[in-house]
Amino acid sequence: MRALTFLFVYLIYLIQPNLYAQESKADSLKSLISKSSEDTNKVILLMELAWVVNSIDPEECKTHAKEALKLSEKLGFKRGIGGAYNNIGIAHQNQGNYTKALENYYKSLKCFEELEEQNGNVKLIKAGLGNTCNNIGVVYQINQDYDNAKRSYERALKIYKQINDNGGVAASYNNLGSICYDQKDFDKTLDYFFKSLKIDHESGDEQEIARNYHNIGAIFLEKEELDKALKYQKSALVLQEKMNDNWGLTYSLVAIGVTYKRKKKYKDALYYIKRGVDVAEEINAKYELANAYELLSQLYAEMKDFEKAYESHQIFKLLNDSLFNEQKAISINELNSKYDAQKSQQKITMLEKDQRIQKIETRKRKLFQYSLIGGFVMVLIFVFFIFNQYETKRKANQELEFKNTQLEFVNVDLDSKNRKIAESINYAQRIQSTILATDEQLNAVFEEHFLFYSPRDVVSGDFPWMFKKNGSIYVAAVDCTGHGVPGAMMSMVGYFLLNNIMKNNEITNTSDVLMELHKGVNTTLNQNSSGSHSEDGMDIAFCKFDEKLTKLQFSGAHRPVLICSNSEIKEIRGERFPVGGTQYARRGKEIIFKDHDVKLSKGDSIFLFSDGLLDQIGGEDKQKFKLSLIKDIIIQNHDKPFSETRDLISKKFNNWKKTYKQIDDVLLIGIRV
């Protein structure tokens, strides 16, 4: 899905005021600017230059746009002020600083709205207003605020139609299509894109034609029509190489790589994605670079080159975290610079060490010379001090013997403390095991069931849970942050919160229970306080059965449920965020859990599990214990007693793990109705 997110960014158009046709090159514009007087014509040339260099160097774009802003304010040239703010916003957006981008876009919007009120229906002013509306929509869409994005795009489209600006109409069609893309309405998306492409063909604008080719290819990729996707993607690439459009090249190269990856042509995919990374690094496109590295990580993993997959994922995580925190992302060149600086510092340290060694050797040689000169005197003095030295040595031996005795006492004390710690942890395990759901409790409700429960340490962050209320049976597999003692503490928080919610609330829907649990974790861990960055929480697969076991309601946080019926398995996935934590709230993402209702038939089997089962490394090729292995066992043994199914899964898991260390707590709950 991240690959498609990467493609989505290029579906959106950044628009700048159409003050002049953008045919002039940067060097000729700089020449004209150097000869220009301090007037509005120079402002227009500066903004034109800012737009030309934006795709190559956003920092240079900001420099020229700020110069245009300063001169416009001096001249009282309000249209220039609005255009300059727009260009500054575009540069910030291309660098991934969306807050700064939106701040400058709204300053631009205010200028053009005031000009519209003063001057009426002037085409240049209306065009500037439409451009800024489109760009505001871009930022909202990137941040998944689709309602505001759509309103901004529709306002821009209306303005462009009023002034017969076909280029703006085409761009707005494209942006509205990208909204449909996010909402998975691919046919409507293609309809918008082909409308835009028709307009661009009529105008002969190769840059816009290339963008539309790319976008149409992205949708065919989503629809798994891979040959059509490649056709349009490569058509876009040809035009972008011709125009030296580095931003466009970044998107198209990686898009082609994604398509080849889908076709299992890994060599071709690696070639194109790595080219995309090179171009993204060259232009400092941080958002695109992060997505490209995640794609590389996924590709290397499919190629079974796990070392490179891990390296690529670490770089992606660094870039992605810095973007979401709206801090300045550390580029790959900066990482290399830091590495080189560390190496240089190590060399300096080694040189300083060598110099110190040389000084010590010099002092030793001088001391030796002085010793020879005074040797005779020292021999005489030595005789008088032999007895004193003997006494000193004897006392030192006594002191050493005393310290050895003390050390023995310390070791004994450490052994005692270690035993007490182990006893405390074992006691905590007994407490944990007494309050969690057991086979006996499940047996009182379900005729056939099993628990496969394997903590990584003595105590566990995973726990099974069951509750009966008003004729309904609630069952959950909960995976808390961490394992061992920290995980066990979180499991206690989750256990008592769930019980309290069920006892003291009238809510019955599984989604409402998870929302209350989310609020409870936030409150218990003080995650709602100002400046809190706590990410502790839990993943959960949560089910409700009616009394006759004919209906199932499911809600999940990062965890799915498997339902096997007549040798066919249906997987219902939970939401893509956890219960508790602040990482999603900091990104402005709304936490909403959904209910999934399923009718059950006699003999259907339901399976809830934590991610420790699937993430275990093992097998012949050091791979993860994949979900497909679990599904195969369930399907092949769907008509056998449940106890056999549990034993087969346990045996398969342990054989898979072999001598590898268990990396996480493991929990699997199976229920047959």
Describe this structure in words.
This protein is an alpha+beta fold. It has three domains: 1-18 and 25-181, Serine Threonine Protein Phosphatase 5, Tetratricopeptide repeat; 344-429, no CATH class; 436-672, PPM-type phosphatase domain (Phosphatase 2c, domain 1, 4-Layer Sandwich). It is 66% helix and 11% strand. The protein contains 25 helices and 13 strands. It has helices at 2-9, 26-35, 40-54, 58-75, 78-94, 98-119, 123-142, 146-162, 166-182, 186-203, 206-222, 226-243, 246-262, 266-282, 286-302, 306-324, 332-373, 375-435, 439-443, 484-504, 510-524, 583-586, 611-615, 627-636, 642-657, and strands at 448-454, 462-469, 472-480, 537-545, 551-557, 561-565, 568-572, 579-580, 596-599, 605-609, 617-618, 623-624, 666-672. Strands 2, 3, 4, 5, 8 and 9 form a six-stranded antiparallel beta sheet that branches. Strands 1-13-10-6-7 form a five-stranded antiparallel beta sheet. β6 and β7 form a beta hairpin. The longest helix has 61 residues, at 375-435. The radius of gyration is 34 Å and the shape is globular.
